[in-house]
């Protein structure tokens, strides 16, 4: 596994990748590029256990969303258009015309909209746990959900973050909870910036413009598993799969299972399209 930075117009963009050789060498072997976007307010760390395995069938590049992980956001407000265009910035930088796009949760919204922004350019799209909100839900969340945390000399903000993460994932062990808290801290006090972008965005318009995606993926133990039926209804797709027992962190907890699903999806399309 490797990692690095790209110098983007807004600042440094951090990424992680699989395999032992440089990205250029992997791409020269004809493997498809897989651009991966994480859920907020986390980071590409959540994909680390899966990257080397994925590198056997593609060139996985997991980016830290601007403002999250180790990526800079620069100035200005980020809407879903800007987040989505990160995919095409990376693809252009690597000289790849038709990458595969993968996204989880908020990252799924960005991946779908990236496909919508450049219809026909993505070689394929896989979405894992798509958050599909009603207009009322979006308005309610914009008003009340995920307020910024305030640094406190006594460290009470650390307890606030810990309690929030533990409340969302009560089944998680202390190691995973600690890793998630680290991601929250990296995101900064206003960790919900990308949430607000999603709540202001018209996902249904993205779905219409993007066309059918290759796979809608969910898990029966996913925190937003109830939204899978909404995504199946809202987004055109070739396949929809619910993995028994899989959580939000499929790539981290079951990397071989995660890799197999993605590799199978990519290989199937390669066979059917020649």
What labels would you give this structure?
274 residues; Rossmann fold; catalytic activity; AB_hydrolase_fold; AB_hydrolase_1; 2 domains
- Main beta-sheet strand count, sense and barrel state: 8 strands, mixed
The first-to-last residue Cα distance is: 30 Å
- Please, how many domains? 2
Q: Which regions are unreliable across 5 or more consecutive residues at pLDDT < 50?
A: none
Rounded mean pLDDT score: 96
Rg from alpha-carbon coordinates: 18 Å
Helix fraction bin: 40-55%
What's the architecture of the largest domain, going by CATH? 3-Layer(aba) Sandwich
| Number of helical elements | 12
Which range does the strand content fall in? Answer: 15-25%
Sheet with most strands: strand arrangement = 1-2-4-3-5-6-7-8
Q: Classify the secondary structure makeup into a structural class.
A: alpha/beta
| Order of SSEs | EEHEHEHEHEHHHHHEHEHH
CATH topology of the largest domain: Rossmann fold
* CATH homologous superfamily descriptor of the largest domain: Alpha/Beta hydrolase fold, catalytic domain
- Determine and state the CATH class of the largest domain: Alpha Beta
**E-strand count:** 8
Question: What does the overall shape look like?
Answer: globular
């Amino acid at each position: 596994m490797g990692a690095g930075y790209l110098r983007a117009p807004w600042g440094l963009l951090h990424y992680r990748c699989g395999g032992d050789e440089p990205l250029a060498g992997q791409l020269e072997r004809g493997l498809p590029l897989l651009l991966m976007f994480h859920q907020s307010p986390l980071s590409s760390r959540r994909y680390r256990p899966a990257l080397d395995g994925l590198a056997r069938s593609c060139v996985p590049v997991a980016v830290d969303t601007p403002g999250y992980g180790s990526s800079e956001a620069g100035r200005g407000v980020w809407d879903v258009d800007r987040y989505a265009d990160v995919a095409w910035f990376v693809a252009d930088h690597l000289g790849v015309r038709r990458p595969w796009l993968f996204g989880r949760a908020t990252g799924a919204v960005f991946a779908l909209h990236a496909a919508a922004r450049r219809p026909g350019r993505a070689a394929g799209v896989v979405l894992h746990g798509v958050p599909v909100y009603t207009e009322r839900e979006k308005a309610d969340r914009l008003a009340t959900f995920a307020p910024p945390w305030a640094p406190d000399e006594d460290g009470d903000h650390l307890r606030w973050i810990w309690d929030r993460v533990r409340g969302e994932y009560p089944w998680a062990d202390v190691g995973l909870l600690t890793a998630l808290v680290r991601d929250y801290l990296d995101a900064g006090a206003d960790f919900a910036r990308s949430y607000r972008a999603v709540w202001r965005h018209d996902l249904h318009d993205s779905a219409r413009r993007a066309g059918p995606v290759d796979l809608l993926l969910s898990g029966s133990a996913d925190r937003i598993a109830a939204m899978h039926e909404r995504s199946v209804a809202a987004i055109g797709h070739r396949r929809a799969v619910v993995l028994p027992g899989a959580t939000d962190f499929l790539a981290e907890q079951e990397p071989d299972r995660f890799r197999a699903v993605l590799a199978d999806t990519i290989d199937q399309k390669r066979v059917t399209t020649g």
